[in-house]
Amino acid sequence: MTKDLPTILVSNDDGLDAAGLLVLGRYLSGLGKVVIVSPDRQRSAGGHSITLKEPIRIKKVSDDIETWVTTGTPADCVLIGIYEIIKDRVDLVVSGINHGANVGIDITYSGTVSAAMEGVICGIPSIAVSLASYGEVKKEILEMAGDFTCKLARLILRYGLPKDTLLNINIPPIEKPLGVRFTHQGSKRYLPRIIKRFDPSGEPYYWLDASPVDNGEGESDLGAIRDGYISITPIKLDMTDYEHLDEVANRYREITEMI
Questions:
Q1: How many structural domains compose the chain?
Q2: Does some domain include residue 193?
């Protein structure tokens, strides 16, 4: 690895051919040595899974911007990128650019966010970047997202991030966002729908579907996107609910006498 330049590990959950991944790699290569490690297929909504019960295979597919593909999950890609491919100091992990927002409860399911979270677990400053569009995206919008991410990455390389904290960035699908908001995670939820079908032999199978339900409050990640702003949300690894810790302890204190 080049010692006088930062090393940036890039991954995603949309797979190797995702337009956002290619744009991100191109922009970040202006900051330092970029290594891309991507899943070999679509891994959206796979959460923070890692592969323990079967082998993971990797293959180098490009030397232009060093690019590898793996049979693993986004979190696997980050682990393999750090400890098997780079085997040296990694200065920043960037996951994205995801096709679709990761706001509210999406964060729990997101392979994009989970890749960045794995980077934080490994002690590396990490960010997840998503473009809040589910349809075809204009080239100019992708370029804007890549340029913004590069500018933010430059600042993170200079100033760092708080310990055990990643940044979750969501970008509205417009050519000129109105600005940037630092936001909290919104209250977006989903109403699940189970679709039952039958195969030719009469055996049932199921599709999972869901409709989003949210408040879209202005100070949240979703509210910012709706208003045309880029959202930046700091997310901690520690998910303890400190606000209600004492309340829970007092309410259920009698359980301590039942042991």
A1: 1
A2: no
Closest CA to 210 of 226, 192, 186: 192
- For 171-198, the pLDDT digits (tens) are 999 999 999 999 999 887 777 889 999 9
Q: pLDDT tens digits, residue range 118-171?
A: 999 999 999 999 999 888 889 999 999 999 999 999 999 999 999 999 999 999
Question: What type of residue sits at position 78?
Answer: V
Single pTM value for the model: 0.91
**Rg of the chain (C-alpha set):** 20
Q: What is the CATH number of the domain that holds 236?
A: 3.40.1210.10
Evaluate whether 21 touches 38 at the Cβ level (below 8 Å): yes
Amino acid at residue number 42: Q
Cα–Cα separations (whole angstroms), residue 54 to 50, 71, 111: 10, 10, 19
